[in-house]
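@channel anyone free to eyeball this complex?
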Amino acid sequence: MRNRLAGIFWSILFLAVPVLGVGVFAIAPSIDVWLPKDVSSHGKEIDSLFYFILALTGIVFIVTEMLLFWFIWKYDAAARGDEKATYIHGSHTLEVIWTIIPAVTMLFLAIYQMNAWADMKMRRPVMKPTVEVVARQFEWRLRYPGPDGDLGTPDDLFLVNDLHVPVDEDILIQLKSMDVLHSFFLPNLRMKQDAVPGMKIPVWFKATETGQYDLVCAELCGWGHYKMKGRITIESREDYDAWLEAKYREQEATQPEPMDEIL
Amino acid sequence: MTHFLPFLVTAMNRHSTFMCRNRFSLSPVALVLTVCGSLLFVSGCGKTPAASFRPNMVEAAKQRLKPEQEEQVATILEAMFGTPDNPIAMPETGLDIGKLRLAAGPVHSDIVGRKNGLFREHCSHCHGVTGDGMGPTAAFLNPYPRDYRPGWFKFKSTERADKPTHGDLVTILNNGIYGTSMPSFELLGEAKVDALVEYVKYLSMRGEAELNMMRYFFELDDEDEGKLPETRDFLVEEILLPVAERWQEAEDAVIEVPEMPEVDLAESIAMGKELFYGNKANCVKCHGVTALGDGQANDYDDWNKVVKQWSDEVQSSHEVSTKEMSREEKAEHREYLARADKALAGDALEPRTIQPRNLRQAIYRGGRRPIDFYYRIHAGINGAPMPAAAGTLTPDEIWHVVNYIRSLPYEFDGELGADRSMVARDRL
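replying in thread with the prediction:
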């Protein structure tokens, strides 16, 4: 009797995996741990790809887990008395089927997502960079090209962590790293790109809504990785220009700012 | 021995049958492991011992303080400044205890959900709980994190020997120090940055008061019997106020900056260039003829110099012959050396030479606003070999040098670099 209890314990434990797994997904949106609000022009496509793959893998996950549960439950030695196990050498047909189906599915996904990938990583807008982002332990150094539109000229504007971009316009970011691997991650813009020391990597997007969102590092980059947090502010063209102008004036200050402005 | 064997084999057989039949059951071993693991986990989350300030071992060894003298300094310091978990702000310090409490202590949320323990959350891993610049990550970094205890700060709007203003330190926390490992804390918000600055001032005052006390033993009379007088008057007048007042005075001692002269920028840059390479300003001495920071680089900044000079001294004491010494002298000498070696190994980082700034990278530690450059050239950089130019250069001349330095990263490129024929050799 004791052994039968053990069989029940293990099969229920295995059953708990799909039940809890599906349960967590079911309640996630209502406790606000689901995808963050999307404010990018390409986000819909990324999200629909995500949902499509989630559904596909979700079905496979549930079926596999249910089978695991079922086999442990049904073929528990304690429940089947002295019945002997049958020795089989395997099924060639079955193996061909469960090889071909995933292979075809993978191939389909690879082709199906190609256009979205090319939009995000290959079809770069023809323009000069809006801003250069240099990742370093543990902050985001920003350099705006200033009125002449060129980086590396005396009118460059230097800032840190506080990224601003105009809404409804193509944004091209030139991403660099000063020390180790970092990852430039804008969750609300569905944008994530590794920053690699020695490489100058273009990142582009178009924001569709104004607001302030997170900019975080998504690659473990050292002990202070967790505090490598910046902020992106998406604003109207007028606000953006006014902000640039004000920051540039601050950078060119030849007299101290009044105390109340610093504090 | 042999007659035990059959019993053992039977026992093992029995055991293995048991194992086979119960392959899927919860084995007692697994149960024990789980329980032990949980216990370890729970005990790991228990209370850690309260944090404490580290004494300034180097200074104590240098001043050859007796153990009871060290103890007295620690006791007085705790009475005046409290502990890392319970700071005290004596009214003479002018510090705000509310801000200090927000920054001090272990990281936790108070009853209204406000985050406390900001210094230990954000700063202490580099600057150390004591503010001695020797947190766990300090030794990896170049330059080393700042040691607040001597009370020297580099980037500020006051004269070289003066303290920085509160606003100067806020600016540093907001902007970080590009070119070093100090990141920006601007997004923490004004209140938290403000509290952290207050706490940095507190640690610096505490460190300087400690130094003052350790150095004061020298000035004691015979009747003091090697002990500091423990009267409030003495401690406030002789130990605390000389430090605190200088912090308070700094707020009204900001360098006055005359307006930039109204000269054509290109002309100003040309004049600045002449000064840069000339004998009057002599910037080339350290920043190099290419301005790449490749001039004199075998000097030390003041923090490293203290360690360097003293470790050299200790080294030469090691080589002193003890033949002529009496037995007591020998013992004393050995004790001093052992203590000095211990202090150098445990309370100091290996000294490093300076790195004069490469002025062509557009990376400036003390800020990139023209006014930041003006302050630095006018007053020099406290703690670094960079001298004050205020006596040698007129304000207009300082502005020309500022304009030239700001043009250096772009000299051979962009608008200002029209004169491409200019090479380093020609400038001399």
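from a first look: The interface with chain B takes residues 2-3, 6-7, 9-10, 76, 137-139, 141, 150, 152-154, 156, 158, 160-162, 223-224, 227, 229-231, 250-256, 259, 262-263 of chain A (CB under 8 Å).
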